[in-house]
């Protein structure tokens, strides 16, 4: 049982909302669509749900062509950012409504409604009406209604965006566990890299309607195919520095010179983009050949457990994510160290040409 | 710019409140100092929006006083209080240019034309939208619109304070960084009182010098991000700040400290001393996932625990373990590896082991 998008495009009034997408979603899988606003996440979900018909390509479900078939004839749940409830029904009846439509026995309805309500922490509210609830509680009610029936395809369109971050953290973990036991296809759209990492499963990076990369979440995270993928899947965004490799050294913006050691020695001469995640930059060197750079503190943001330090010089700017509290005055000089074995390297066409050895994974 | 004081303030949406549950804000005293960058943080329904609306004048409190620089303003409208507000969604005039949008609050206040011009230019430069000044607002991107919305708050030189109500909700994560950084720079440059309402701890702690954490209509802690992280003075703060939150374990008094199941956790002498003088049986220990240490070998002060789950979050890992009958979370770096079901040895460094009685932190100075 799988859902396949085959060369799917959707163009409306000359604007490409989805461009030539080829993707397969398996039953029992959790799939995250990660991209910025207007990347095509919602458009793609609407095509999967049959709410829109693609201008090109086909949708196959269990091998059967379902292009343009609507939601009602297929067992689909869709959960939106802005939730909708029936104002004249209690929370209990809101959640029960799809099961009543399916003419399920009352005892089974009761069991399922209570189970779903307890998972979403709204069990004490079952007798209330939607308008007597807070925004977050209303959203959870609508979410419960979508989850209570056993849909074969469940589409989440940024469902947690309007909720408390703490509740999001809990619901994310619940969703992950819940779908591990179900045999449906779950598709979840988000703009947040950290949410994709927390949800796990498969990650598909979307940008301006195109699929940039798709695969198991850690494969995509550890080997982004190009600079765009690296930026989309990193929060704060991966730092990118322009560099030139000669036979003997690497120069960053003709300013900072370093010997070609370790894995950098394999690079052929030319211009590259060097990428490093904010969490991999340190204030003290870990190895003799760490790249040392003299910077100035632009801003130090302390989150309590971590410090996000923005540093810059006349050539480039970077963000570092440091464990613990580091108080620095704006303008203070600081030396930062970039471990060579944590550098991603992209060629002039911004394609990944080198994956850092320390974080390429798999070596368990 | 003003100091904002809330004196014996309480608010109920009910006409005849009968008990504490009828109050959206329970009686509190609070001061927002002149020129501070503050955040008001809490889950939905905690009373933070009510508090913000009371400061701005959109709601009149049912009890107590709101003082600006010592003067009672309960009866004054938001306009008369000189409060600027930035909301979740940009509030701008789509048909006007960016320049006209920024100039509008000044024109309303009859500021001379040449002063308007220099001031609008100045604000546009700070927000890096000077090249957009003559664009129609409707042609801007979401983050540019929100910048203009902030600009409309900043442009008036006579404002008492700027209140932000979840201003970055509609902004993409990649741009949130930039706007937050911008806001912080603006605060440093203009030295203006800012109160920022959010349910996002990271947003609160990166923006604010001091955070008021609200829970059940009360401010349960008012402190720096570091204080909230290192010494949460209420279990709710421990749970709410941090991702995942603090490990909180119900314990009993026993020989040598406190116990859960058959595990004995020793206390500092001053902690044991204070606990002995209290009678409550609601006792918990708290330790953050970041502060639990993992070692490969066992020793006198380590606890054996079973690895239940290792969650890879890219830059770090969250390890779920079972220690006696308790599940706990431990944060480890991205290089951590352990087989599920294997044993690891944990230790709780003394300075990070918190003791809570009736949900409040037991502090050394209480002695």
Automatic annotation (TrEMBL), chain A:
Which ranges carry the ABC transporter domain?
3-233
Protein name stated in the entry: ABC transporter domain-containing protein
Entry GO terms, CC = ATP-binding cassette (ABC) transporter complex, substrate-binding subunit-containing
MF terms in GO: ABC-type ferric iron transporter activity; ATP binding; ATP hydrolysis activity
Going by the UniProt record, its keywords in alphabetical order are: Cell membrane, Membrane, Translocase, Transport
InterPro entries, per database record:
ABC_transporter-like_ATP-bd, ABC_transpr_FbpC, ABC_transpr_MalK/UgpC-like, Mo/tungstate-bd_C_term_dom, NA-bd_OB-fold, P-loop_NTPase
Could you tell me which species this protein originates from?
A: marine sediment metagenome
Automatic annotation (TrEMBL), chain B:
Q: Which residues form the ABC transporter domain?
A: 4-241
Asked if Protease is a keyword of the record, the answer is no
Alphabetized UniProt keyword annotations: ATP-binding, Cell membrane, Membrane, Nucleotide-binding, Transport
Q: Which GO terms describe its molecular function?
A: ABC-type ferric iron transporter activity; ATP binding; ATP hydrolysis activity
Q: Does the keyword Zinc apply?
A: no
Q: Which InterPro entries match?
A: AAA+_ATPase, ABC_transporter-like_ATP-bd, ABC_transpr_FbpC, ABC_transpr_MalK/UgpC-like, Mo/tungstate-bd_C_term_dom, NA-bd_OB-fold, P-loop_NTPase, Transp-assoc_OB_typ2
Question: An example Gene Ontology cellular component term from the record?
Answer: ATP-binding cassette (ABC) transporter complex, substrate-binding subunit-containing
Which CDD domains does the record match to this protein?
A: ABC_Carb_Solutes_like
The record's listing under Gene3D superfamilies reads: 2.40.50.100, Nucleic acid-binding proteins, P-loop containing nucleotide triphosphate hydrolases
Q: Which PROSITE patterns match?
A: ABC_TRANSPORTER_2
For this entry, the protein name equals: ABC transporter domain-containing protein
